[in-house]
Amino acid sequence: EVQFRPYRTDDFITRLYYETPRLTVLNQTWVLKARVNDSERNPNLSCKRTLSFQLILKSKINSPMECSFLLLEGPYDDVKIHPVIYHFVFSNENNETDYMALPIVDSVECNKLLAAKNINLRLFIFQIQK
């Protein structure tokens, strides 16, 4: 289970983003980052809100690591997420995924997540053996 915590950038016009503490999965250290409306300039002026996330490998690895991963709702949340499995090959040179849309059902569900102090989700990572 991961917990996204809200942070703000140091820009002149601050932007809200979310980040998890470091977590250990598959004997590697990972971090998840999330942003609102793909960091548009004024997401507060939009009635349609989205969250996108990025998975980052913080550990150094000896060989490329092919993984599948997905995010699901947390244990006590009632937010509706459609499960989507993402694939990525992590290496020391390519250690972070692109930002991918969190598959939330609609903008109302996204607003429920944003209204909470922290966002609790479950992360599943599977290593693909060749």
UniProtKB/TrEMBL annotation:
One of its GO terms (molecular function) is metal ion binding. This is Cysteine and histidine-rich protein 1-A. Keywords: Metal-binding. PANTHER family: CYSTEINE AND HISTIDINE-RICH PROTEIN 1, ZINC FINGER TRAF-TYPE-CONTAINING PROTEIN 1. The keyword Metal-binding applies. Transmembrane segments: none annotated. GO terms for cellular component: nucleus. It comes from the Eukaryota. InterPro entries: ZFTRAF1. The keyword Metal-binding applies.
